[in-house]
Amino acid sequence: MNPASDRQFGEYQLRELLEETDQSYRWLAEQLSISRLVLLDELRTENATPATREAFLADVRAKAAIDHPLISSVFEAVSEPHLCFYTHELLNGPSLADQVSAKQPLRPAEVVFILRRVCEAYLQYETLNQATLPLCLEAIHIDEHNVVRIENLARAGSRLSDESTRDILFLGTALVPLDATGHPGSNRLLTLLGWMRGLEIESPLTWSQIREVCLQIEEQLTDPAAALTHNLPRASRKKRSKVLPYILLATVVIGGAVMLLRQQPASAPVQVGVSLPEPITVPAGKYPTADGDSKTLPTFKISAHEVTIRQYAEFLDTLEGLAKDGRQTLFDLPDQAPAKTSHLPNDWLALYAAAKSSGTWQGLPVTLDSPVVGIDWWDASAYAESKQARLPTQAEWFAALSYQTPDPKTLPVSLWTAVSPQSTDRTPAGLLGMAGSLCEWTQDHSANPANPLGEEFWVITGGSFLKSGSNALSREWVSDRSIRRPDLGFRLVFESP
Fold first, then answer.
1. Confidence (pLDDT) at 255
2. pLDDT tens digit string along 182-198?
3. Are 48 and 84 in contact (CB under 8 A)?
4. d(CA 81, CA 318)
5. Interior/surface letters 326-344, b for 16+ CB within 10 angstroms, e for the rest
């Protein structure tokens, strides 16, 4: 593609023209304030009418409303008389289309893992009843750490009744060339892809059904003795073709229930924990804020690391003991919704079982000293109450970040790994995981500086291992304190005596 001319849109310097249509340009651009590469989609204003401009912005609004760790993020949108553009995340790693073009098939276990992650993203679209553009292999990326991310294909308008079927049928065909035949699981994967195309069944599978089958295949690939229902003799399989997927799903549910019973957490973890760093004291003084001004703060202490799975398990044990006396809500905040009756993180039984055995969860290595994930704001606040602490305010979080740190945006970004004093994602004062690992809940809410007159939302701050390009200066605003994500955790602030 042609290199970009010497053009700059606000803090975005255009680097290279990647794609051009009758309606828009797509540029590779650099966000200068944080040295981040992004994608910038620019409406061709010379050809634009009020209707095409509104359609462009309506699609941007639809994309910006999607908040899911697997789906790429929209950063900013600008609409001026002679300039209309939005910036969004540049995904790491090759796309599946690149893999097909390079004739580089993947092991069946890898394809099944990618397919499961796509299902999880598209279940979010279904839940929101969000219309989407047709799925394509160019939209699915996997990086060197096997993190799967998907381009945001949300669009304005009503979701069509056949959109899920359309995309499932597409994947059932498009993923076949990616299967490295001859490897364990190949026949099982090809059978599943056939079902997605409608072979041997009357109705196409749903995203939820495909995800359940993927989970079973992944389990069986770690247990070679397991056998799928589709290994029945051919005549028997044909006779049962109308109900085959549902027999398999019933097996998944029953098998999953047995596994959960086996994975009930013990009252105390069996691993011996590492020596975790103590909280860091941030002295009183004037500190820069994330919004570019400064604030004077008293002395406070902040956790050197995010709360770990081991620590959170001990909190759940405490709640279980309190429940015997009917005091399980002792640490709940007064304004917590009555409908919220548990502080179990998402997928806790599987996460905790994997952590105790130093195994894997959702394809990622995990130990009891890994930061806990799947926590909403209420869970984090209740845990803090149990420790006579609280969540940090935005001002405190950024004061701690800047304490002894000349340039926070240069901190190395880390993956979601066990807390370790040897982490490179470490401030000079000793704070771990500020630039990467998990993004974190803060105590307060505010307006997004990009829309200072807009509504105030709850603030999540710091870098996320699932969000390419994020770092210690990253922030996002959410309206719902009940959201839980596999890249979202928290740390504590203690009032200094």
1. 39
2. 888 898 899 999 999 98
3. yes
4. 59
5. eebbebbeeebeeeeeebb
232 exposed, middle or buried (CB, 10 Å; 0-12, 13-18, 19+)?
A: middle
Q: Give the domain 280-495 fold.
A: paralog of FGE (formylglycine-generating enzyme) (3.90.1580)
Residue 408 dihedral angles phi and psi, to the nearest 5°: -55, -30
How long is the chain?
497
* pLDDT confidence tier of residue 67, bands split at 50, 70 and 90: confident
| 3 state DSSP class of 251 | helix
- Level-2 CATH architecture, domain 8-89: 2-Layer Sandwich (3.30)
d(CA 184, CA 191): 13
Burial 44-68 (b: 16+ CB within 10 A, else e): eeeebeeebeebbbebbebbbebbb
pTM of the model: 0.51
Lookup: tokens for 479: 């309206």
Rounded Cα distance, 249 and 314, in Å: 34
Structure tokens at 146: 């096997």
CATH-assigned architecture of domain 96-262? Orthogonal Bundle (1.10)
Can you tell me the distance from the alpha carbon of 279 to that of 495, in angstroms, rounded to the nearest whole number? Answer: 11
- Mind listing the pLDDT tens digit for each residue in 259-285? 333 333 333 333 445 679 999 999 999
* pLDDT at 254 > cutoff 60: no
Q: Which of 431, 484, 493, 495 is nearest to 462 (CA)?
A: 431
pLDDT of residue 4: 57
